[in-house]
Amino acid sequence: MDADRFDTLARALFTTRSRRGVARLLGGMSLVGALAQLGTPDAAAVCGKVRTTKRRADTCKTSADCCAHARCTSTGRCKCKAAWADCNDDGRCETALGTEANCHECRDTCEEFEECRPEFGGKQCCRPLGEICTSIDQCCFQGGNSLSCRTIANTKGALGSCGFLEPNTQTRCCIPPGGKGGSEVANCDCCGDGVVCFGTCITKACETQCTRSCEPGSNCGGCEGLTCQPAPEQGDENKHRCLPA
């Protein structure tokens, strides 16, 4: 107790005043002491948490707003730092990866733009088709597809647009001409102005060659990914059309 508080208490006890007044003074000082012991709320108790199976990640402005071992992403949400994970789904990154056998899901450590995909007998963080990339190594392996990291034209797709923000100049994970796996609906998985012909990406200039009648041995206009093949489903056993190899 400091000198000023001691003097105040002494005056209250040894000067003429009612018992009720002394009781009020002592009670007030006890409350002050209790509040002082409580102090300010623990900052860790109100820190921003990461995404769980039941709630979105908390918003943040800097990594200091997030709980321990978490960082603030460019989208303004808290996320576990690399090598740390939320194993008990409480929104806190309390477990160093590799220390618990049941905590190796790559979703805990995938960076922005990435997804957790099963690849080569395990799990890997990678960027799906249509996502921004700077190298083909960042793109998800598409089960045998050819992949590339190029620009994708925005003026195509089921509704005339792939939905990329303009100016659409960023390179993205995509399927080059001759590669398989493009969406039949949007064509937006194909690099550049590419379109889909029965699951294979071809250039826009070759769109008219898809299913076009051809003579055996024809090169189908030199279109990559198309060859002249028998097409008995057209009703003529001798009919040939340009189709994906």
What is the succession of H and E elements?
HHEEEEEEEEEEEE
Query: Which consecutive residue ranges, at least 5 long each, have pLDDT under 50?
Result: 1-41
Global geometry? elongated
Query: How many strands appear in the DSSP assignment?
Result: 12
Structural class: alpha+beta
Distance between the termini: 89 Å
Q: Mind summarizing the main beta sheet?
A: 2 strands, antiparallel
- Radius of gyration of CA atoms, rounded to a whole number: 33 Å
Strand order of the largest sheet: 1-2
Helicity level: 10-25%
Strand content: 15-25%
In short:
The chain has 245 residues and is α+β, with helices and mostly antiparallel strands.
Describe the structure.
This protein is α+β, with helices and mostly antiparallel strands. The protein has a domain at 47-112. Helices cover 13% and strands 17% of the residues. It has 2 helices and 12 strands, in the order ααββββββββββββ. The longest helix is centred in the first third of the chain and has 20 residues, at 19-38. It is elongated, with a radius of gyration of 33 Å.
Protein traits:
2 helices, disordered N terminus, alpha+beta, two-stranded antiparallel ribbon, 245 residues, elongated, single chain
How are the SSEs ordered, and which strands pair?
Elements: H1 3-14, H2 19-38, E1 70-72, E2 78-80, E3 84-85, E4 95-96, E5 115-119, E6 122-126, E7 148-150, E8 172-174, E9 195-197, E10 200-202, E11 226-230, E12 240-244
Antiparallel strand pairs: 1-2, 3-4, 5-6, 7-8, 9-10, 11-12
